[in-house]
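Revision sheet: structure tokens.
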Amino acid sequence: MHRRVTIAEGVDDLPWSPDVVVSRVGTATAAWGFADVIRTADDPLTPGDPQDPAHGAQETYFEPEDDLAIDAADVQTMVFQKTRRVTKNGLEVISDLVLSDRLAGDEWSTSPAEVPERIMWRSDLAVNASGAAAVVWSESARGGGAERLYGTFRRGSGTGWSAPERVPAPHAFSFDVGIDDGGRVLLVYDRIYDNQAGVWAVRRSPAGEWGEPQAQTPSCSV
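Predicted:
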């Protein structure tokens, strides 16, 4: 880095889960969370920075995964969580998963896609050159039980997101998702809860068909 750039001042809490993408012309967009809100800003600065992708919604946040991505046409996609309610015991948080888009330098969509009332712990986003994308998140079973993975997918930039579907990755803990330019999805996850512990991988075809999970290595963190 040949110089340091301050893109936001007056942050009164420790910024959490920052992420950054860079456009074809070299404009960097940083995203971060603080004090239960999320913000983005460009370098060089865009008028209106820092921006609020949630448009005033409170209790919005990132998880420590890849939650901001950009395609070959410089269309950015962001995934974040918006708290809907907290149960009486104060431990279980019910969140909406929000998926928002913008062209680099423009404003974030005012009508983002939402996956309502999902109990989420982690999420991961992957976007390919044409804007096809995959989002995977973990969800606790209602009433207890092991975490489960779900996903939503789109065929290209500007197309709709699919209905949430269960990802065939039993006993997954940490995970990472990727998508190639042909629309093939690869999910890698750490399976730790049973006697088949280790790193596993499962593929999804462009037609939406999941393969069988395949063991990769002995147990370790993804």
